[in-house]
Amino acid sequence: MDIKSVNKPKKLVATHVTKRPALGAGFKANNQSRRRKKRSISHKKTVRYGLLVANLAVFLVVGSMIIFFSDSNAADYTMSKDGISQTNPLDELSAADIAVNVAKVTNLPETNSVINFADTVNSELETYTLNTETARLPQILSADIKTLADIKEYITVPGDTIASLATKFGVTSDSIKWSNDLTSDDLDPGTKLLIPPMNGMIYTIRSGDTPEKVAQLYQISLSQLIVFNDLENSSMIPGHRIFLPNAQKPSSASNFAVRYGYNGYDPGWCTYYASARGGAPGGWGHARTWAVNAARTPGWFVSKVPVPGAIAQTTGIAGDRVGGSWGHVGVVEQVKEENGQIFIKYSDMNGLAGFNRVGHSDWVPALSKFQNFIYRIE
Questions:
Q1: Helices vs strands, H then E, count in the chain
Q2: Separation of first and last alpha carbons in the chain
Q3: For 154-194, how does the pLDDT look when each residue is reduced to its tens digit (9 = 90+)?
Q4: In angstroms, rounded to a whole number, what is the distance separating the alpha carbons of residues 84 and 79?
Q5: Entry pTM
Q6: The CATH classification of domain 270-376, taken from the options 3.40.350.10, 3.90.1720.10, 3.40.30.10, 3.30.470.10
Q7: Most C-beta atoms within 10 A of its C-beta, which of 6, 73, 120, 246?
Q8: What is the C-alpha to C-alpha distance for residues 15 and 38, in angstroms, rounded to an integer?
């Protein structure tokens, strides 16, 4: 054996070597594309959340305006030894209307909700103003019991004014103006006037009038209307005059308006369902103000007696009536009388079956669940 060949180191032969490829242009481009995509997704999330926060901020501002200004605009009346004084009268354009304009200009998704809330606020402010004005005007107390026969006729003389006649006969100026369909305080000598026996309104009965309808429309006590005019023993005859004690003329609520042609309420709520089934116009606000607004809407009637198809309404503040502070509305499906009591079956949304679902009741006492029943006058 050759010694040289033994000591000579063996030559190592590489069979397979895996080399790491160099970072080429294609790999770098893909990496940059992924980074751009991540930045784009992050930017979209930022924009989306930013819009959400902006919407919430606008909605909170709108809600705060309604709550704050409606409280301040509701006319803070303070008592003093001289009587009731008005310290902050209602603005002609309420904060609720301003909030609606803000919601429309900013295209807020909750605009419909803001409109309905504003309708409710304005309705309650107008009702509050009427009631407060009645309380603020001097009330004449007399031991004499007034009757329909105490209505007087008076011929004006030079120097007469509405205010002077109101003082002379112990009634409010509005009582004289409303009883004679006057829109101005100016009086010409020789004008024939009807003077009411007390604060209220002399009313000429029209075709289709009922005591319930007139009492609801002019916000007076039904029992007082019937007793004062002896209607328990007679009927409402068109053309005859009656007296409405402490009446409030509907035209005093000049900003009230309704909207037909579409469902003006948010889907899923009781008002949306009742409007779709009963044909209620937009502008009645939340359920709690539907009865008072229906009574002020031509062609609608509010009653304590249910009929199939009527809209059942409650303010939700008495007994076990449904709805909470926002009130509730449903639709009367069936009516029956049993042992002198009226029962109804009704359907609703966001009540018996939950939000955005229609529920159907069994027989329930009508007035234990609802205070009013609203339907159209044909």
A1: 11, 13
A2: 131
A3: 999 999 999 999 999 999 999 999 999 888 888 999 999 99
A4: 5
A5: 0.48
A6: 3.90.1720.10
A7: 120
A8: 43
